[in-house]
Design a protein that fits this description.
Shape of chain B: globular
Number of strands of chain B: 21
CATH architecture of the largest domain in chain B: 2-Layer Sandwich
Strand content of chain B: 15-25%
Number of strands of chain A: 8
Helix content of chain B: 25-40%
Mean pLDDT of chain B: 96
Radius of gyration of chain A: 17 Å
CATH topology of the largest domain in chain B: Sulfite Reductase Hemoprotein, domain 1
Structural class of chain A: alpha/beta
Distance between the termini of chain B: 54 Å
CATH topology of chain A: TIM Barrel
Radius of gyration of chain B: 23 Å
Strand order of the largest sheet of chain A: 2-1-8-7-6-5-4-3
Largest sheet of chain B: 6 strands, mixed
CATH class of the largest domain in chain B: Alpha Beta
Largest interface: A-B, 40 and 43 residues
Structural class of chain B: alpha+beta
Low-confidence stretches of chain A: 1-15
Low-confidence stretches of chain B: none
Order of helices and strands of chain A: HEEEEHEEHEHEHH
Mean pLDDT of chain A: 91
CATH superfamily of the largest domain in chain B: Sulfite Reductase Hemoprotein, domain 1
Oligomer: heterodimer
Distance between the termini of chain A: 52 Å
Number of domains of chain A: 1
Number of helices of chain B: 18
Strand content of chain A: 15-25%
Shape of chain A: globular
């Protein structure tokens, strides 16, 4: 069976540092995930969408966690203030968060972190990266190995997405010049 | 036809390497079957009743001789020396071993082919009119746009975990030989008053448990906006399509639940946000792809050469084959020759490796090295000189590929059914075989004219029974195979879902009942009416009376 989210499993133990995959390496997560009615503490926090208004005034790094059924456009007024948007994969076969990430990048020009949580599997990393995710809490496997594989498997992609790769048709056009 | 460049070649090679690694991780236990399943499905590997099946993509049904030879060799090397052409213009091999799947895909990649996205909840292999580029009634060549869509949809990062599978079909002719109105998205090429190319966009058609005719959400979409518009449709579907019930997860259910107007509004709103995206800037790519589909160097050809005329006069079998299996070509002196994969008593769509190699040789010698696969599970030689027909026919006859029955009662579509499929309730293939045997008399079959019989072994409707002039659906009644009959379906431009005739008929009786229905048609028809026309004029009643009359 799949392991539960590391970040969720570890959140009650403040001495344990959660790791996230970002930029190809595992780094400590400086954010604390606030769930339910927990008090919003000082320091970098990630809150649920419903508590965003309550957290927005504080002067510390802020993130928000969405369900994959939430309309990301509700974040529009907050995006300049947000450091992290957490998008969730309840099952790895449920691909709604791919579109949520792309809308954030493509339509709202959001430049902060988009973090994937839930059933994040190594073989989905490349798709997530191309849709604009840049931080990952893997449910399984060695994150660095998975990242290296995801970044090196294909030398070129056919379609433009929310990464920096040059799609095949643009490359061909450049080659033809 | 389209030729891979180095980018395309690298892509399929890298894809093979990726899948080999995934297979190795599955065999080592690193990947669970649940995790591996979508990975193998998007590589065409499907677990059937007895073994793995490999579904190989034949994008928009077009292939060259070398590719068909490669398919024949793969069928020999990794399977049992035959393959099965499907209603989605693909080829299925039914007895593949998991540990050899990577090698089979590598052999495919060597011939510029793949099995990408022939299964799974992603954008499936795109289909098109099998007469693309040669049909006299064509507005524009659908293969150009089908290839554009093939590339855009290949490993699309946003749309690889959709609620359900997603099928796109493109036709360049108003006659619609691509069944666009029963696809998730159907694209019909047309020109506006200024002569510019664009598309009618049809969304939400489909068969399966809940058959629906697609709805037009855009009358004219300019060519350059095709991909941004498709992304808008797919994004609306990915976010709003139902994921709580796999039988309600297709886009047709979303369109049905929110209504065509609301669907159109959402798509247009999404499209408006992306209208300036890089994807709207594909004119150079369209021109590059189109350059592979320019007019072939057709030489002069006599429309009625002496060799052909003499043979036609002296050989009734040849004459009947020409009448039923050849069709007008846009160039005078040429024709489109369809090779029926429905010999009397045969398995619809099956071809042996030897047959494939013989057909590949015919295409190389007589058809500009090009072939098509039809969604009716036949093959096509699209560029044939009239003077070459006798020689082609002789080779086909020697290969037992000369059935003169295209669009006739014997030209049956059938899903694999309970003989292969884990989902089926009943067998499809033996019913098709028995019907074709019953109507083996060529004169009788030709007298009955165009009759499209389609058979599905279960409610998922892979045999397209809903849109058959006569549709048969296998059901299980206390462990026995019965067949429901629907009449009046059509997949063409006048797309119609057939109507259930009455109670299901036992396997023993089903062929007799089909015969009663067709005999009723022969008695009731007026003038040149096809079966479908007579049914539409008279309704179900006379057919029902005859079908259920006591013997």
């Amino acid at each position: 069976m799949l392991q539960p989210d590391r970040i969720y499993a570890a959140k009650s133990d403040e001495t344990l540092t959660n790791l996230i995959l970002k930029g190809g390496v595992e780094i400590p997560d400086r954010f604390t995930r606030i769930t339910g009615d927990e008090p919003i503490m000082e320091g970098p926090v990630i809150v649920d969408l419903g508590r965003l208004d309550a957290a927005i005034g504080a002067n510390h790094p802020l993130g928000v966690a969405l369900a994959n059924t939430d309309d990301v456009s509700v974040l529009a007024p907050y995006l300049a203030r947000l450091d992290v948007v957490v998008l969730h994969f309840p099952k790895f076969t449920d691909g709604r968060a791919y579109s949520q990430a792309r809308i954030l990048r493509q339509q709202f020009g959001y430049r902060g972190e988009i973090r994937a949580t839930g059933q994040v599997l190594p073989d989905q990393l490349a798709f997530m990266h191309r849709c604009g995710f840049d931080a990952f809490v893997l449910a399984k496997g060695d994150p660095v190995t998975a990242w290296d594989r995801a970044m090196t498997t294909f030398s070129r992609h056919y379609q433009p997405a929310s990464d920096t790769s040059v799609p095949a048709f643009i490359r061909r056009r450049e080659n033809a010049k | 036809m389209y030729q891979y460049d180095q980018i395309d070649r690298n892509f399929v090679d890298e894809r093979v390497a990726q899948f080999r690694d995934q297979i190795a991780r599955r065999l080592s236990g690193e990947l669970t079957e649940e995790e591996f399943r979508p990975l193998r499905l998007t590589n065409g590997l499907y677990l059937q009743l007895h073994a793995y099946m490999l579904r190989i993509a034949i994008p928009y049904g077009t292939l060259n001789s070398r590719q068909l030879e490669t398919l024949a060799e793969i069928a020999r090397k990794y399977d049992r020396g035959y393959g099965h052409f499907t209603t989605r213009q693909n080829l299925q091999l039914n007895w593949i071993r998991l540990d050899q799947a990577g090698d089979a895909l590598a052999d495919l990649a060597d011939a510029d082919m793949h099995a990408l996205q022939t299964s799974g909840n992603c954008i499936r292999n795109v289909t098109a009119d099998h007469w693309a580029g040669v049909a006299p009634d064509e507005v524009a060549d659908p293969r150009v746009y089908a290839e554009l869509i093939r590339q855009w949809s290949s490993l699309h990062p946003e749309f690889s975990y959709l609620p359900r599978k997603f099928k796109i079909a493109v036709t360049g002719s108003p006659a619609d030989r691509a069944a666009t109105r029963v696809h998730d998205i159907g694209l019909v090429l047309k020109r506006d008053d200024a002569g510019q190319i664009g598309f009618e966009v049809i969304v939400g058609g489909g068969l399966g448990r809940t058959p629906m005719i697609g709805k037009t959400i855009r009358d004219f979409l300019p060519e350059a906006q095709l991909l941004p518009y498709l992304e808008a449709i797919l994004r609306v579907y990915n976010l709003a399509g139902r994921r709580d019930n796999m039988y309600k997860a297709r886009i047709k259910i979303l369109v049905h639940e929110i209504g065509t107007e609301e669907m159109s509004r959402r798509v247009e709103a999404e499209f408006a946000k992306n209208i300036d995206s890089v994807l709207a800037n594909v004119q150079d790519e369209v021109a590059r792809i189109a350059s592979y589909f320019t007019k072939l160097p057709y030489g002069p050809s006599d429309p009625n050469p002496e060799s052909y005329a003499l043979r036609r006069k002296s050989d009734p079998a040849f004459r009947r084959w020409v009448i039923s299996n050849t069709f007008p070509h846009k160039i005078a002196g040429y024709c489109i020759a369809e090779i029926s994969l429905k010999p009397t008593g045969g398995i619809p769509g099956d071809a042996t490796s030897a047959q494939m190699i013989a057909v590949a040789a015919l295409a190389r010698q007589y058809s500009h090295d090009e072939l098509r696969v039809t969604h009716t599970q036949n093959l096509v030689l699209p560029h044939v000189k009239m003077s070459d027909l006798p020689a082609i026919y002789d080779v086909l006859a020697a290969q037992k590929l000369d059935a003169p029955n295209v669009n006739k009662v014997g030209d049956i579509i059938a899903c694999p059914g309970l003989d292969y499929c884990a989902l089926a309730n009943a067998r499809s293939i033996p019913v098709a075989q028995r019907i074709s045997e019953r109507f083996a008399d060529v004169d009788r079959a030709h007298d009955l004219g165009e009759v499209k019989i389609k058979i599905s072994g279960c409610i998922n409707a892979c045999g397209h029974h809903h849109v058959g002039h006569i549709g048969l659906l296998g059901v299980d009644k206390n462990g026995e195979e019965f067949y429901q009959i629907t009449l009046g379906g059509s997949e063409a431009a006048d797309a119609t879902i057939g109507t259930l005739l009455g109670p299901a008929i036992s396997s023993d009786q089903i062929v007799d009942t089909v015969e009663k229905i067709l005999t009723a048609y022969a008695d009731l028809r007026q003038g040149n009416e096809r079966f479908l026309d007579t049914y539409r004029r008279l309704g179900a009643k006379p057919f029902k009376e005859r079908a259920y009359a006591a013997a």
